[in-house]
Design a protein that fits this description.
Peptide Deformylase, two-stranded antiparallel ribbon, 3 helices, globular
Length: 177
């Protein structure tokens, strides 16, 4: 099976609101294993399904305590504020100081269909919020001011041109919302 490709900024799937997962089965568990492999190889600590082209509400993660999967997650509560330099596998080589709640209470399901409740803070809370943004079609650039966003788009265009081996042609329009 071919390795999963992590989608980058400009791919329309990253801007769609993901659909709830109705059924967890072996195919989804296999996809989660592949996503974990892609995440580790990138390297990253979280990867949402839309980042591999699947518009479904789940993500994989590992922030140092072993891998996990959260299905149909929702934040029940949040508290505090924490600024941290945050990057994203779908916006390669860029990062910004982003303000997010310091603590969250998250509810979700695991791959066995069991309910999960997690009290998370600091890096774990940030990781979960970041991946949940992907499920809502939101990206780090949405947190930036106008000047930061303009500069980020300029850099991303340059990266896309370099990846293609030169300037974009007439049929190669790069959409950067």
């Amino acid at each position: 099976m071919a390795p999963l490709r992590i989608r980058v900024y400009g791919d329309p799937v990253l801007r769609r609101v993901a659909e709830d997962v109705d059924k967890v089965d072996g195919a989804m568990a296999d996809l989660c294993r592949q996503m974990l492999t892609a995440m580790y190889e990138a390297p990253g600590i979280g990867l949402a399904a839309p980042q591999v082209g699947v518009s479904q509400r789940f993500f994989v993660y590992d922030f140092g305590e072993g891998p996990g999967v959260l299905v149909n997650p929702e934040i029940a509560e949040s508290d505090g504020e924490w600024t941290y330099n945050e990057g994203c596998l779908s916006v390669p080589e860029l990062s910004w100081e982003i303000v997010r709640p310091r603590r969250i209470h998250l509810r979700a399901y695991d791959l066995d269909g069991g309910e999960v409740g997690i009290e998370a803070e600091d890096l774990q809370a940030r990781l979960f919020q970041h991946e949940m943004d992907h499920l809502e079609g939101k990206m780090l650039l949405d947190y930036l001011d106008e000047d930061q966003r303009r500069e980020a788009k300029r850099i991303l265009r340059r990266q896309a041109m370099a990846a293609r081996g030169g300037p974009l042609g007439p049929g190669d329009a790069l959409t950067l919302p």
